C-alpha cells in the first residue's frame, strides 16, 4: 500500500471494503442534518476509484463512510482553500470480506467568533482491486445536530463577521462587565436582589403627599369673634390682625372683609356670617410659600383678644390638605368627651400646624326645658308648648294666596317678639286655665351649644381637623392612625380617619390598579411579539428596578411622592420595557443565526449599548428643566413627575444592561442545555435501534483495533 500525503494533512481513516470496481460519480451533500446514502452501480467495470474525503470539525461529530478495501490503497492528500460545501465522492461498490476501518468526514462550521470556516483539506484515496461488482450502500452514522439553531451553527448560515473585533470605546468599557456578569449570572442576580432590598429600606424615608403644594402666592385667613360682637369690636380686632400681617416680610397685599363667613357661596345664602372676618393675602411670588405660611402662623399666635384665627391651607387644584378624624357617638356628652380627648392628643403630634374641632365652635342659645307635670295640668304637651314659643320667636307660615298668577306665602309674626332672656321668660302662654307665664311651665336659661349638629345614620358626629405643617401628609396620617389605634374610647363611640388621608389612600389604590393593568397589557403585547410566555417575563424585570432610582432620587431631593409621581411611574413601565425589548430581540436574532446563548447575549448587549444609552439620556435631559422646577406654578405637578422618571431611567438602564443579560443567559441557557441532552439521547437511541455505530462507538473500536495491532506487532 502506497500513501502520499502533505505534511499538514490530518490523519485519514478509511473504512475497508472488499472488491472495488469503477463506478459513476454520485454527489454527496455535506449537510450536517441529513444522512446521505450513496448507491453504487453493479454493472461498472472494475478499475481504480478515487474517494475525495472532506475533513471538517462540526462540534466533534463524525459522518463515517463505509467502503471495503482488500489490497493496495494509494492515498493522496491535496491541500485546497475555499473549497465548496458540495464535494463529489466517487465510491466503489463494497463486498463484505475485509475488516472495517473508520473514516471521518466533517461539515463546514461556524467558528465561535461568527466567521465561516470553509473546508481547507481534501484527501483522495486510490483503491485498486479486481472484484465482482455488487450493489452496496454507504450509511452515515447518526449524530448530526438535531435542533434548528444547531444545524444553522454547523452550516454557518447567517453568520456575519464579528462586529466586536473592532469595538467602540463604549463597548470596550462594557464588554468586560457583561462578560463577567454572564459568566457569574447567579452572583449578579443575588447582587440585584440586594439592591431591591435596599430600595425597600429607603421607602419609609420618602415623604407622601396627595397633589402636592400648588405654590400659589395667596393665603386665606378666617377670624371668628364672640357671638354678638358689635361691628365696632370686629373692626378693632381686624385692624390689630391686619397691622401684624403687614409687618411680615413677604406679604404684599391684605384684603379684609368684615361680617363674612369666609365663604362667598355660604354668605350668598345666609346673608353673611355673624362675627366672622376674612383676610385674602397676596405674597411675594419668589418667596418660599411653605416657610412664609409657618411665619404667619407663628406671628398670629402671639396676638391676644382677637378671637380665633385659622390659616386656610390648600393643596393643588384648591384641594384641602386637612386630615380629619370623624367621631360618632349616640349621645352628645359622649361625643364631646371623645372629641376633646382626640383633639388634645392630635395637638401633640409632630409635623402638625393646627388642630381644631367642630364641637369647640359653640354658640350661646336660649334653652327651654318644659316641666311636663305643670304643662299637663293646664292641658299642654311638650310639643304644643314648643310650637307656641317658636311662633312667638319667629314668623310662622299660615297659608298662601295667588296674586297675578304668583303664589304668595302668608306668615303670622308677633308684633313685638322677645329680645332678651327676661322677655322670653315672661312670654304669655294661652292655656285652658287662662294665660300663664312661660317660666311657670318650663325652665328658661342661656347655655352654650354646637354651632351645627351633624348626624350619621342617626348618631351624632363631630370632626377633629388636623393641618400638617408641611407636605408630608403620609407621615402625619401614619401618626394619626397610630393615635386612633392606641386611644381607648367609651362604649358606643367610634373614630375613623378621613379628609385628605382618605382621598390619598383612594387615589393611590386606583393608580396602583392602573399600573398593574399597564404591566399586564405590556406583557400581552410582548407575548404576541416574541411568541413566548417566558421571555416577556424576563423583560419585566426592568420594572421593579425602575423603582430603585425613583425612590432614591425622591429621598435625595426631598420631593414627596404623590399623584403626579405615580403618573410618572406609569410612564416608566413603557419606557424601561422598550429598552429591554430592543436588546432581547437582537439577542434572539443572534441565536437564530447559530450563536450560543452566552455569545448571543454578549453580542446583543454590546450592539444595543449605544442605542439604549442614547434613548435614556435624551429623555433625562429633556426632563431636567421640569425637575428643576423652572416651569412656574405648574411645577407642583411637573417636578415630582420628572424626578420619578429621571431616577427610574437611571437605575433601570444600568440594571437592564447588567442584570437582564445575566437572567436571560441563566434561563435560556438552561433551556438549550436540556434540549441538547434530549437530542443526544434521541440520537443514541436511533443509533442503537439501527445497529449502526455512533461516533463514540467508532472511537472505541479504533482504540481496540490499535491496541490489538500493537500487541500483534510485539508478538511478531
TrEMBL record:
Pfam families: ACR_tran (PF00873). One of its GO terms (cellular component) is plasma membrane. It comes from Mycetocola lacteus. Residues 126-163, 687-716 are annotated as: Disordered. InterPro entries: AcrB_DN_DC_subdom (IPR027463), Acrflvin-R (IPR001036). Residues 703-716 have a biased composition (Polar residues). It comes from the Bacteria. Keywords: Membrane, Transmembrane, Transmembrane helix. The chain crosses the membrane at residues 511-530, 537-559, 565-588, 609-630, 642-667. GO terms for molecular function: xenobiotic transmembrane transporter activity. This is Efflux RND transporter permease subunit.
Amino acid at each position: 500500500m502506497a500513501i502520499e500525503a502533505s505534511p499538514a494533512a490530518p490523519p485519514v481513516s478509511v473504512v475497508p471494503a472488499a472488491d472495488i470496481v469503477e463506478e459513476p460519480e454520485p454527489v454527496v451533500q455535506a449537510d450536517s442534518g441529513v444522512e446521505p446514502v450513496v448507491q453504487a452501480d453493479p454493472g461498472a467495470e472494475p478499475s481504480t476509484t478515487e474517494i475525495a474525503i472532506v475533513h471538517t470539525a462540526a462540534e466533534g461529530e463524525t459522518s463515517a463512510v463505509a467502503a471495503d478495501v482488500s489490497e493496495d490503497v494509494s492515498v493522496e492528500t491535496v491541500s485546497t482553500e475555499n473549497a465548496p460545501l458540495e464535494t463529489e465522492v466517487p465510491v466503489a461498490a463494497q463486498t463484505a470480506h475485509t475488516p472495517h476501518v473508520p473514516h471521518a468526514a466533517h461539515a463546514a462550521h461556524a467558528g465561535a467568533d461568527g466567521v465561516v470556516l470553509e473546508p481547507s483539506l481534501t484527501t483522495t484515496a486510490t483503491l485498486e482491486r479486481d472484484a465482482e461488482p455488487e450493489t452496496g450502500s454507504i450509511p452515515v452514522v447518526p449524530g448530526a445536530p438535531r435542533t434548528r439553531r444547531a444545524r444553522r451553527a454547523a452550516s454557518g448560515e447567517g453568520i456575519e463577521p464579528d462586529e466586536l473585533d473592532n469595538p467602540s470605546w463604549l463597548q470596550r468599557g462594557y464588554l468586560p462587565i457583561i462578560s463577567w456578569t454572564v459568566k457569574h449570572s447567579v452572583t449578579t442576580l443575588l447582587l440585584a436582589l440586594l439592591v431591591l432590598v435596599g430600595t425597600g429600606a429607603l421607602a419609609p424615608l420618602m415623604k407622601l403627599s396627595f397633589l402636592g403644594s400648588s405654590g400659589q402666592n395667596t393665603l386665606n385667613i378666617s377670624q371668628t369673634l364672640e357671638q354678638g360682637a358689635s361691628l365696632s369690636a370686629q373692626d378693632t380686632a381686624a385692624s390689630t390682625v391686619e397691622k401684624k400681617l403687614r409687618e411680615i416680610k413677604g406679604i404684599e397685599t391684605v384684603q379684609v372683609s368684615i361680617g363674612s363667613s369666609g365663604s362667598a357661596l355660604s354668605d350668598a345664602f345666609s346673608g353673611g356670617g355673624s362675627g366672622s372676618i376674612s383676610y385674602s393675602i397676596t405674597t411675594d411670588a419668589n418667596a418660599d410659600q411653605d416657610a412664609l405660611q409657618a411665619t404667619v402662623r407663628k406671628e398670629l399666635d402671639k396676638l391676644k383678644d382677637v378671637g380665633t384665627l385659622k390659616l386656610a391651607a390648600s393643596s393643588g387644584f384648591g384641594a384641602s390638605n386637612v386630615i380629619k378624624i370623624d367621631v360618632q357617638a349616640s349621645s352628645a356628652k359622649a361625643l364631646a368627651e371623645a372629641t376633646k380627648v382626640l383633639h388634645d392628643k392630635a395637638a401633640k403630634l409632630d409635623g402638625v400646624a393646627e388642630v381644631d374641632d367642630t364641637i369647640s365652635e359653640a354658640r350661646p342659645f336660649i334653652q327651654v326645658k318644659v316641666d311636663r307635670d305643670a304643662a299637663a295640668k293646664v292641658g299642654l304637651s311638650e310639643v304644643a308648648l314648643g310650637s307656641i314659643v317658636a311662633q312667638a320667636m319667629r314668623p310662622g307660615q299660615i297659608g298662601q294666596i295667588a296674586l297675578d298668577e304668583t303664589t304668595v306665602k302668608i306668615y303670622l309674626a308677633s308684633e313685638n317678639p322677645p329680645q332678651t332672656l327676661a322677655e322670653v321668660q315672661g312670654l304669655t302662654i294661652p292655656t285652658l286655665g287662662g294665660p300663664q307665664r312661660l317660666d311657670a311651665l318650663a325652665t328658661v336659661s342661656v347655655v352654650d351649644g354646637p354651632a351645627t349638629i351633624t348626624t350619621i345614620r342617626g348618631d351624632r358626629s363631630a370632626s377633629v381637623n388636623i393641618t400638617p405643617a408641611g407636605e408630608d401628609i403620609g407621615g402625619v396620617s401614619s401618626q394619626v392612625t397610630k393615635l386612633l389605634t392606641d386611644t381607648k374610647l367609651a362604649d358606643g363611640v367610634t373614630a375613623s380617619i378621613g379628609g385628605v388621608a382618605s382621598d390619598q389612600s383612594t387615589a393611590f389604590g386606583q393608580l396602583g390598579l392602573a399600573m398593574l393593568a399597564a404591566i399586564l397589557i405590556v406583557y400581552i403585547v410582548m407575548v404576541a411579539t416574541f411568541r413566548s410566555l417566558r421571555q416577556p417575563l424576563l423583560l419585566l424585570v426592568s420594572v421593579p428596578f425602575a423603582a430603585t432610582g425613583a425612590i432614591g432620587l425622591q429621598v435625595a431631593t426631598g420631593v414627596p411622592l404623590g399623584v403626579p409621581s405615580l403618573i410618572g411611574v406609569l410612564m416608566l413601565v413603557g419606557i424601561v420595557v422598550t429598552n429591554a425589548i430592543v436588546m432581547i430581540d437582537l439577542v434572539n436574532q443572534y441565536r437564530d443565526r447559530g450563536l450560543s446563548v452566552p455569545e448571543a447575549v454578549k453580542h446583543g448587549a454590546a450592539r444595543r449599548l449605544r442605542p439604549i444609552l442614547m434613548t435614556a439620556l435624551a429623555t433625562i435631559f429633556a426632563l431636567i428643566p421640569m425637575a428643576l422646577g423652572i416651569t412656574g406654578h405648574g411645577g407642583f405637578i411637573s417636578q415630582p413627575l420628572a424626578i420619578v422618571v429621571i431616577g427610574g431611567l437611571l437605575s433601570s438602564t444600568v440594571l437592564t444592561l447588567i442584570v437582564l443579560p445575566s437572567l436571560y443567559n441563566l434561563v435560556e441557557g438552561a433551556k438549550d442545555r436540556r434540549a441538547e441532552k434530549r437530542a443526544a439521547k434521541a440520537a443514541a437511541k436511533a443509533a442503537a435501534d439501527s445497529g449502526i455505530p455512533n461516533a463514540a462507538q467508532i472511537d472505541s473500536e479504533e482504540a481496540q483495533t490499535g491496541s490489538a495491532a500493537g500487541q500483534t506487532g510485539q508478538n511478531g
